[in-house]
Every structure is written in C-alpha cells, then in structure tokens.
Amino acid sequence: MHLHGSAEVNQNGELMIGGVSTVDLAKQYGTPLYIYDTALIRERAKGFKETFKELGVKAEVAYASKAFSCMAIFQLMKEEGLSLDVVSGGELYTALKAQFPSERIHFNGNNKSRSELITAIENKVGCIVVDNFHELRLLSEITAEKKRKMKVLLRVTPGIEAHTHDYILTGQEDSKFGFDLQNGQAEKAVKLSLESEYIELIGLHCHIGSQIFETTGFILAARKMIEKAAEWQTAYGFTPDVINLGGGFGIRYTQEDDPIPPSQYVKEMILAVKEEVSRRGMEMPEIWIEPGRSLVGDAGTSLYTIGSSKEVPGIRKYLAVDGGMSDNIRPALYRAKYEALIANKADAAPEDTVSIAGKCCESGDMLIWDLPLPIAEAGDLLAVFCTGAYGYSMANNYNRLPRPPVVFVENGKAKLVIRRETYQDLAALDEYLT
User: Fold this and answer.
1) Which of 128, 160, 309, 399 is most buried, taking the most CB atoms under 10 A from its CB?
2) Are 246 and 293 spatial neighbours (Cβ–Cβ below 8 Å)?
3) pLDDT digit string (tens) for 211-234?
C-alpha cells in the first residue's frame, strides 16, 4: 500500500497521520471524518514557490480554493505566502472572514453576479478573471459607477485538449469558459478592455483541464497565448504583464496514476514562455499558476466505520461504510478510483476482495470496487486515501446526512477546523407549513 506524506503504521498496526493515530481520531471525532496532513500541504506549497525562485521568474502561486475551502485552509495558505483563487461569493466571503489579504485574491468564475463583483471591488481584490462579454460589460459599468480601477485577466480558451476525463476538460474550443482565441472573441475582449476607463488589463488566463499527467498541453497553451499577445502588442499596444496558466496538475490516486513532480510542470512551462517571448522580442511576463488538487488532494484521508456486509455467492462481497456519495461524490460523478486500508489493521495482509458501498439510498453509491483487504468486521475503520480535493467541497446532504467534520493533523497534534453538522443544522433553514 502506498502511504502519502506523513502517513505510517505504528507498532500496534494502526494508521498514523501527522503523528496522530487514526484510531484515536475516530474515538475523539467520530466517523465519517476528513483528516488533512498539513505538513504535506506546506511542503507542496513551498515546492511550487521555490521552483519559481530557483528559475528567477516573478510569479504568483494561487491556491485554487474550489478544491477545499474553509477559513483554516485559507489561513494556512496565507502563512505559506500563497495567493488565492476564488470562484464564488461564498469562497470570497470565507477568504475575507479568514482575513486573507484581499490584494492576493483572484476572483474567477464564469457567471459572477453584480453583487459578487461589487463585493470584490469594494474589498479591493487583487484581480478579477473576466470570463465573458456579459461580465466585461457589467464590470465596466460597476467600476465606472464607483470610479474605481480594477485589474483584470481575460480567461481564454486556447483550443488545447488535455488528456484527462471528459467531464473535467475546460480548455478546449467547445467550453463554457472563457473567450476563444481562434474565432476573434478574445481579440474583441482585449479591445473592449483597453477602451474601458476603469479596467486595467494586466494579462491572460487559461485552464486546460484537471488531473493532467504531462506538460505538453500547458506548453502548447502558453505558446498560443504568447503568439496572440504578440499580435495584440503590434495592433493595440497591449503587452501582458501576467500569463496565468491555471492548474490541473495530476496526483497519484492509485497505482494506475503516474504523475510527474510539480516542479517539472513549472520548469517546462517557464522554459516554453521564455523561449516564446524571446523569439518574439517581448518582455518576460509574470507567470501565475493555480494549483488546487496538487496542494491538498493526497494530503486528505477519509475515515469511515464499517457496518453491514453482503455477499453475493460467486459474484461479489460488499462492505458498507457510514459515509459515501454524500461526502465523496467523485466515484459516482467521475468514476474516480481510490486506494484504502483498514486503519486499525494497517499492517495486516489482504485476504479478501470486497467492494465498498456507501450508505445512501442509491445503487450508484459505491466508493471502491474490488478492493483487496484483510478480513474486515463491523466496527473496523476504513481509511480512503487522497480525498483532500473535491471531497468536503462537493459534500452534500443527500438522504439528510450531515456533513463530516474536518481535522488538521501535524506534529502529533489534531485541530478541529470544521465541526460535524448536526441534525439541528440540517433543519435550521426549514420552515413549517403551518
């Protein structure tokens, strides 16, 4: 079994994360439970920043907060000197409540409301990533009304298809995101931005997909953006100060995955941009990136208690846990695959093959198919690895299941950062009919 970050097995055969026994965590906080190895997150954050520093390139590393949002993770990113990419009013509100520096917040998203844009402007966020003409007009109106300048990146779709799951492709030509580079939309957006009195166009943004294991797509996207920027420099005098190449760097979920080191993504992207701007006689722009999954994905572990079991002779054995698609919808949504072990028998050899079912009243609520495990009993703890990205952030209350708590672990200490929802929380917004 591949163990991530600080995970290890102690002499009692218990899975340890951050120097804390997962068995003890289950006793203290109950299950289901999200556990984050914050030392691993810090290591990844430092790695991205140090790579840029080593290569002598001005850069911003912005945590893509849609991967996992809460005040504590924003405070951790602040401590590590990262910027923040938010995509909704709720993420922006949480960041501001966590006292994250507003000048290091980038506001992304494809359908920002007027009120969301006003909040961003009034709180002086670092920049807004404009996604479409409707938003560009709206932002021009609001900034003019308030007589406030706003820095802007234009999100473009460079027509690059990343080798990833179809559901999470975002950079190809047929996309709900951004201005297309090929059909003149992006050029029109550049012209309109430059004509707007209170919009300060500082650069271009793209995001070609998620869980990507090669650098080719990023390099092609960078080259296309610089190529167009060179044309617009000649035509309109626009030289981008910033090229934001987004995120999407892949992580290892199972042995089928073979990600490259994050530093390699950064190095190859920088070399491609340097080569392209040098060839065209342009100044080197700042390089911005937006890692999310690659910062928090494999730092997260979901802990469950095993309950019922069912064996279909000659076909399959099912084990049910006390969570499922309500706390991890990715297997149902993307057919995502995970590895897991029995946390209280972490040193035991596999003797059985089982499939892990969730407790939701839904036949599609399956977390893992055909998982090798030791003989499991009701009450054993199942640890599912690499659930740190899009686990809690996509959690839901299907079947009126409360969302689990979140704990951060590091140096032998555990800190509760999101409490468990209660049944009272679930009914708090309900109103009586009579």
Assistant:
1) 128
2) no
3) 999 888 899 999 999 999 999 999
CA 304/CA 105 separation, integer angstroms: 35
Binding-site residue positions for pyridoxal 5'-phosphate: 248, 290-293, 390
How much is the pTM? 0.95
Look up the CATH number of domain 108-291. Answer: 3.20.20.10
Residues of the chain where predicted confidence (pLDDT) is lower than 50: none
What residues form the annotated binding site for substrate? Answer: 293, 330, 334, 362, 390
**275 phi and psi angles, rounded to 5 deg:** -60, -45
> How confident is the model over 4-24, as pLDDT tens digits?
999 999 999 999 999 999 999
Q: How many CA atoms lie within 13 A of 346 on its CB side?
A: 27
Which helix or strand (DSSP H or E) is residue 165 part of?
Answer: none
Domain ranges in the chain are 8-37+297-427, 108-291
Q: How far apart are the first and last CA of the chain?
A: 56
Active site residues: 361
Q: What percent of the chain has pLDDT over 90?
A: 89
**Beta carbons of 231 and 276 less than 8 angstroms apart:** no
Assign domain 8-37+297-427 to its CATH architecture: Beta Barrel (2.40)
